[in-house]
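On clarity, I found the account of how folds are encoded harder to follow than it need be. Since the whole study asks how a given chain folds, the encoding of that fold should be made plain. For illustration, here is how one protein appears when written out as sequence plus structure tokens:

:::
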Amino acid sequence: MMFYKKNQQKINGLWYPKSITWGKAITTNQVADQLALLSTTTRGDAYAIVKNLGNVLSLYMAQGRTVKIDGVGTFYYTAAANKQGVKTAKEVSASQIVGVRVRFIPEVERDVNSKITTRSMVDSNICWEEWGKTSGNESGNTGGAGDENDNPLG
């Protein structure tokens, strides 16, 4: 089940639903445990693979490559430039780059008309509930895992 809260935009004063997460973030151990259940690997093997995934992704992306993981999606780097543009192409240089961002595009499947039919990481059976309106639980706390203030993504 996914949750949303009502959010008023400052720019136009209109109200929109804003998705929120709750509780503490799922840990590497929990992901490894679930992967071990779904595969033929042990928990330790799954943990080692998950723990090293970031290093492997950065190794390839630092070479200027994209990394596509079947069932997950594609990861790649983009450059974050300073706000100081230059007037000619000859003046463009690496010194204008002030940071690197990791970008991610979830894997999708398309039908014959190029219409997206499924997204690998988006469950097709998501049920949305307003935060705090969960039946039988006015506080919105769904099992002691926390509230919107515990949101690891802000």
